[in-house]
Amino acid sequence: MVPLGALLPGQRGTIVNLFGGRAFVSRCLALGCTPGTRVRMERNNGRGPVIVVVRGARLALGRGESMRVQVTR
Predict the structure, then answer these.
(1) What share of the chain is helix, strand, coil (3-state, %, to 5)?
(2) DSSP 8-state code for residue 33
(3) In what order do the strands lie in the sheet with 38-43?
(4) Looking at the DSSP assignment, which residues form a beta bridge with residue 43?
(5) Where do runs of H (alpha helix) occur along the chain?
(6) pLDDT tens track for 52-73
(7) Strands 69-72 and 57-61, how do they pair?
(8) pTM for the whole thing?
(9) Where do the domains of the chain lie, and which CATH numbers do they carry?
């Protein structure tokens, strides 16, 4: 398992777990980032927000948020 923020553009992963407070986890779940969901990294410049594609929608997550989402490749 690796943090979502460690994926390179074009790489795919499956969400395994969400770590964080109730508000963060609730926001992720509301956006469709549920365990078992496939994601594709669209933009990750190494700093600033990342853009991921989840269920066909593009989502922007802060760098810290992306490091609290665990995925398998």
Answers:
(1) 20, 40, 40
(2) -
(3) 2-3, 69-72, 12-18, 38-43, 50-54, 57-61
(4) 51
(5) 22-30, 63-66
(6) 999 999 999 999 999 999 999 9
(7) unpaired
(8) 0.91
(9) 2-72 (2.30.30.90)
